[in-house]
Design a protein that fits this description.
By secondary structure, the protein is of the alpha/beta class. The protein contains 8 helices and 7 strands; from the N terminus they run αααβαβαβαβαβαββ. A 7-stranded mixed β-sheet has the order 3-2-1-4-5-7-6, with helices on both faces. The N terminus is likely disordered.
């Protein structure tokens, strides 16, 4: 039986106007208008009252992609791994997909932005999976080291780190060592000390040579492109004993 971890800090955080639901394009700031047109791809239940921060519009994983990643991790992870930790949970896109898979005994969502946490908890409730997720408001590296360390041998880490905003897409090859605020080495050095099963969700143009060089610790690494409507949206890099996809 897994040890029950302490409740996350988010219970003390109240509603905020930073968590928004736009009903009309005229309400939407100019720099995220194009993402508003994709709202049903981001959350199929958007009209039910999905909340997002303005920065989440270009950071959340589209729901079909999140569902496929969740399926691949659920089916490909060793059966001894029963805890899923989403290290940059944002407003809950990936976390909700993991919860809907029904695979995990415990799911922990960690997010530094308190407003995103509020949105994520709200969105998880809309999808009927809020009772399956424990949220932590804080730094993911500190949380896994100080709060979740007893669960390391049972855990898989999923991380969709910040890519530096929409400007990342202008680079023909994305430099993962210059990724802000966390470089590839920073992420992998922290996560491999916690568990060998790590999945990183990264830009589709990520430098594969950098990934190969940084993967020295693992015997097995898989890179999968995830597409929508015939175009690659991102890659997920699977480090460790994943048997699929």
């Amino acid at each position: 039986m897994l040890e029950q971890m302490p409740a996350a800090l988010v219970e003390a955080i109240g509603p905020t106007s930073t968590c928004k639901h736009y009903d009309d394009l005229r309400q939407v700031p100019w720099d995220i208008k194009k993402y508003y047109h994709q709202r049903y791809s981001l959350f199929s239940r958007y009209d039910d009252g999905v909340l997002m921060t303005d920065t989440a519009w270009y950071g959340v994983t589209p729901e079909p992609v999140a569902s496929m990643v969740a399926q691949h991790i659920s089916e490909g992870t060793p059966t001894t791994k029963v805890v899923l930790i989403d290290c940059f949970a944002g407003v809950g896109g990936n976390t909700i997909a993991f919860a809907r898979s029904g695979r995990w005994e415990k799911i922990y969502a960690i997010e530094k932005d308190e407003h995103a946490v509020i949105c994520g908890k709200h969105n998880a409730k809309l999808y009927g999976v809020d009772h399956l997720i424990t949220w932590f408001h804080g730094d993911c590296f500190e949380v896994i080291r100080n709060e979740l360390a007893p669960l390391s041998r049972h855990s898989v880490v999923f991380a969709s780190p910040p890519w530096g905003g929409p400007a990342y897409s202008t680079d023909p090859v994305f430099d993962l060592q210059k990724m802000q605020p966390y470089s590839l080495d920073r992420l992998l050095d922290a996560f491999r000390q916690f568990t060998e099963e790590v999945a990183l969700f990264l830009p589709r143009t990520s430098d594969l040579q950098q990934l190969a060089t940084a993967s020295w610790y693992w015997d097995s690494v898989k890179v999968i492109h995830y597409c929508m409507e015939g175009a690659s949206k991102a890659i997920c890099v699977y480090f460790g004993l994943f048997t699929s996809p």
